[in-house]
Each structure stands twice: as structure tokens, then as C-alpha cells.
Amino acid sequence: MAEGGEINEQSSVDGDRSCSLDSLVLECPICLEQLRHPKSLPCLHSFCEECLGRYIAKELSGKMASASSFCCPVCRRVTEPVNKSEGKESWAEQFPTNNLAVEMIKHLQNIEKSITCKPCEKKGNANVPAKFWCKLANTYFCAACKNSVHDLFHEECEPENVTELKKSVIIQREMSITGCGKHNEKLEYYCEDHQLLGCSKCIIVDHRKCEVVTSADDFREKLRNSSEFGNLLEELLKFKDSMETFIKDVDEQLLSITQYHDSGLKSLSDLRKKVNERLDTLQEELTVKLITYFKEEKENLDISRKKCERLMFAMQNTLTSSKAVDLMDDTVGTICLFQRGQAEVESCKVLIQEFRKSSRSTSLLHEYDPDILAVDTKTSLSMGKIVVHQQERKLPSTACGTPLSERQLKRTGKFNIKLPSDKNDCSLLSIVFMSGGRIVVGDNGNRKMKLFTETGDFRCDMKLKGETRDLCQIDDNSVAVILKTVKTILVVNVADSTLTVKTNIKIPNLDEDELCYGITYNNKNNSFVVGTKKSLISVPRFGGEPTKLHTIESKCFHIASDKQNGHVFASIDVFTPGKVAVIRLCDGTPTDTLKVGILKDPAGIDVDREGNVYVCDWASGNIIQMSGEGTNVRELLTSSDQIVRPRAISIWDDTIVITSGSSSQRNVIHVFQLIEQDRNI
User: Fold this and answer.
1) How far is 217 from 189, CA to CA, in rounded Å?
2) Rounded Cα gap, residues 641 and 650, in angstroms
3) What is the 3-state secondary structure (H, E, C) of 552-592?
4) Strand positions, DSSP E, 384-447
5) Domain that holds residue 336
6) What is the pLDDT of residues 442-452, one digit of tens each?
7) CATH of the domain at 77
8) Which of 6, 29, 196, 468 is the most exposed place for a label (fewest CB within 10 A)?
9) Per-residue pLDDT tens for 330-380?
10) Where are the alpha helices (DSSP H) in 180-226?
11) Cα four-point dihedral sign 549, 550, 552, 557
12) How far apart are CA 333 and CA 314, in angstroms?
């Protein structure tokens, strides 16, 4: 049974192959559909004319225009067109039409009709199916006519049973034309020089000068009697087996890649689940941190509130007791009340001073790299981080004694910041005074940022790759520096003794001559404001397209921001009387705040905790203080205070630091303090 099963299975395979071979005769190897306008190449492989034309165009695309041949899509034989002078788009139509295929297609369309017996047709019965075909008579017979007609005249001829023949064989026997695509005649000759079949006209026209031209029958006999034909059949068998091996190998690869495909889809699904689980964990961790930070800040604020409440209630009780009628007759009670009131006032001053030194505006932000949302990002997937930003907080002026706008300026010291490693004198174009007495300066002369203490102790420096201009504070732990020509913002982390670059933000789409000078950070909309030679622009905190805020008449070297209300102040490099010297931006809307007058050539600018604006006057050597609206302008320093060409200024609490652009003072930082008027100056 097993053997019979194997034989039946093999027979089925052979039958399928026979049908497949029949169909391949009329199938285009390129589009795998039935041939349309079939064209035969010299290697006898046929293709649709349209498919062959597209193939030739694609095969020769990118090659030299002088290319004069192409490879057969099936056997890769180098093939030349009939006429190379014509355009490559017409090469396909130059090849001869495969008339055999054309006729086979025509007959195939009617192949479902039964082949009828010719003798019966002559007798008037045209629908009798034929069963046999006689090669000698080239006639079909039914079983009855075979016995009564054929066998009487052709006793030695054994006709073939046509029911066992393939359709292609039957079609070829019925066809009267056997092939010349040029002259519509029978292919009867073979040119061994060109290895081509041709009709009599082909031989006369194209092969009359060839040395070896024989009849097709003679060449067929020559092939049969030589070993060449047998060797070819053996090679064909060998390479057919090779192709079967390759097909099997491709099938195995297809199976393998399908398995990888299914495995990859499953892996993606599993990874998505794991990523979701990991993100859930990260979110939970960040949530815990956020809640922890919030509780710590809330606890500190609650403690401060309770201190104020206890002291307030104590002073209220003292005030109430002072109104008692019988207290005036109580000598001891009056003295004790007076002493208690004195102690409470002193405690209040100490507490206010403590708040002035330690009061901070704390913001809890969830920060993440926006690039993780981009489709083509290379940024690692992350939930970001919780960042605590602490900034100097403006206390109510009634709680701080004399307002800063009414205090006097007193020099408290100065120090030299030129280092032994500096090759040039310093050029201190920018300065930031931070909490904890940290002073960050931009030294353009040596292309450095430097960190000092309030008393002049050097902590560290950091090399910069570009011309430095303005500096600004972002929060208690970081500053930003603008690089003029490379149009880049560097965000730098400031510790007690280190400076570290955190972010490098390139400002895109600026005109080539639009260099960058001033910079400040607007905490209200989480963006930088940058001054150029002709405009004020806004740049997102983590980079992106800049937005133009205002057009200016001259360069903007310095910008400052009021952290309480988000107002931005820009000093404009002008010295013509009546021209705008300071501009204020409120929610992006510009206002001319101060014009050239008492201020002759504005330079550095900063804002204190009460909203007062301080501006350096490069030309006159003045330092002016004004309210945020540009009113109440007063001179804090004049040229008699011996600061020549004040350039940059920064204020923290009641202490001010100033740099100079003078050649005699360019390495020095001057330190001043705003003091109460009743102190000795």
C-alpha cells in the first residue's frame, strides 16, 4: 500500500508539472500573466512587449547613454537590439513576434471545444469527438472511423490516443504556422554562425553571407547524432535539479522569515506590555518624589507661618494690654509691658531678616525632553524628572524695613578675578549674583565662565567655545550664557564649586548677520528672551523655533527679568537724546520705559526683589535706579564714585556687584550694599 501511495503521489506531481509546463509556454516571466504581444529574444525566451520595454528601461537606468545591450530577464544572456541607433524605449518592439505563442493563445481560447472526427464531419455529423490522431494522414478519428477507415488504409500505422496528449501538443498539431515572426512563414533553416532559426526569406536577406546554413531537419539530425544534444539534456537535468534545490532553499527561507515575523510581532507586543509596566513604575516613582518635595516645602511654609502667627498674637496681646486703664497706675506692670514689647519688636526684626535671607519662591516642575515625542527621535524613552526650582522671593516692602528704592548705596569691597591661567586681561561683559554668595561672571577676554564667592574666593572656571556675551539666572542652581556668533544658549549648572554644562540650545532660522547679545529667562512662560542687533526674540526653554517679540533700532546687549510678574527689561545701545534706552515687555507687549537723558548710553541691567530696575550708564559712569514703569528715576552712583564705564550689574537681596569696561578696571568686580538711611555711610 505504501508503495502504491508513493507512485500515485508521484504521478500526481508529474501531472501537475505537465500542466504547469503547458501554462509556462504562454506565460510572461516578468508579469506572470498570459503573454500580450509576445516578443522573442535571440535566446528564445518570450515576454510581453510592454513588460520587456519597462525591463530594458529599468535595466539601463543609471548606466551610460551609450549602453548598447541588456541581459535577458530569465537566462541573463547579453542581448543586443536589432537597431542600436533607435531609442532604448523602442528596443522591445524591434524583436520578432512569437507567432507560435500568438496562435497557441488563439487556440487556447477555444480549447474547451472537443476535437471532432474528420471522416464523420464529411458525412455530415460534425459533433463526433475524436479519440485518435494519425500522424501520416494528419487527421483525427473517432474509435469507429479508426477501425472502419484508418485501419483499412494504414495497417502499419498506429495512431496516437489524443485523450492522453497535453493541450499544447494538440494546439501545435492544429496550427498551420510554425513560427517566423518577420515573414509569417515556416521556419525551415538554421544558421549555425548566428545560431538562429529562420524562414527562406530570413536566410536570403540576413544570412546569405554566413558560412554554415542548413535546413532545420538536417541540423536536427546532426544534433541527434552528436553527443552535444545529449550533453545538453544532461546539463539541463543537472541544473533543473539545482533550481529545485534553490527553490527548496527559498521555501525554507520563507518559512524561517515567516517564523521570525510572527516571533517579532509577539516580541513587540510583549515589549509594549513591559514598557507600559516600566512607565507605570517610573510614573509612580516620580509621583512619590513630587509628593515628597511638596510635603517638605509645605512643612517649611507651615513652620514659617506658625512663627509669624505666634509673634503676631504676642504683639497683639501686648497692644491690647497697653490699653488697660489700670495699667498706668501699675509701675512694674508698665515697665514689664515695655520690655516685653521691645523683645517682640527685636524678635520681629530678626524674623524678617531671616525671611529676607531664606525666603524662596519654590516651583515643582515635571521636566522631560520633548524629543521623546518625535517619530524619528534618537532620545531614550523616559518619564523625565521632577525638578525643584527655587528663586529669590520678593517680600512685602512693609515687612522689610526701608524699601530698597529709598536706601543708599555703600561700597563694601572689590576683588580681582584675573587668574594665573588667563592669557589676556578680562573682559567682563556679564555677571550673575546668586544665593549663597555665588558670583558667576562671563569673561569674554579669555572665553571663560568663572565662579567666585562674594568675598572674592575663586572656585572654578570653564572654557567656552565661542564669544560670550550676556548671562542670566534661571533658578537657584543654573544660569544661561549666550554665545554671540554661534547663536547658542548654554544652560550651566552652578554648584558651590563647579560649573557644568547641562543643555546646548542652538537658535535656528536667524539671519546670518543677526548676532546674539543679551539674554534673560522669563519664568512666567518658561522661555528665554534674546536680544540681537535688530530684534528681541523668544526661545523655548528646551529649544525650538524662535518667536519675534519686537523690532529695535540698535543692539540689545543686556536684558533682565522681574521674576515676580514676568516683565522683561531690555537696554538698547543708543546715545542719541530722545531715543528709547530701556524697553519693557509685558506679556510680549513692548513699552518705551526710559529715553536717553539722565541715562546717556545704557549697558548692564537688572531687577531687584521689589521690582526696581538698575541700569549701568557706560558713557557717564552712572548707575541709575528706577521703578518698573520708568518713573522715580534716581542716581545711585556717579562718576565721582570712581567706577569707570560700568558694564554689567547684578543684585541679590540688598547687595549689588558691578563690572567695568575700563582698561584700568576690567579685571575687577565692585561690591556695594543698599543700606538703611539711618546708618553711617
Assistant:
1) 8
2) 18
3) CCCCEEEEEECCCCCCEEEEECCCCCCCEEEEEEECCEEEE
4) 385-392, 408-416, 428-434, 438-443
5) 241-393
6) 999 999 999 99
7) 3.30.40.10
8) 6
9) 788 888 888 988 998 889 888 887 887 777 777 787 877 777 777 776 777
10) 200-206, 216-225
11) negative
12) 16
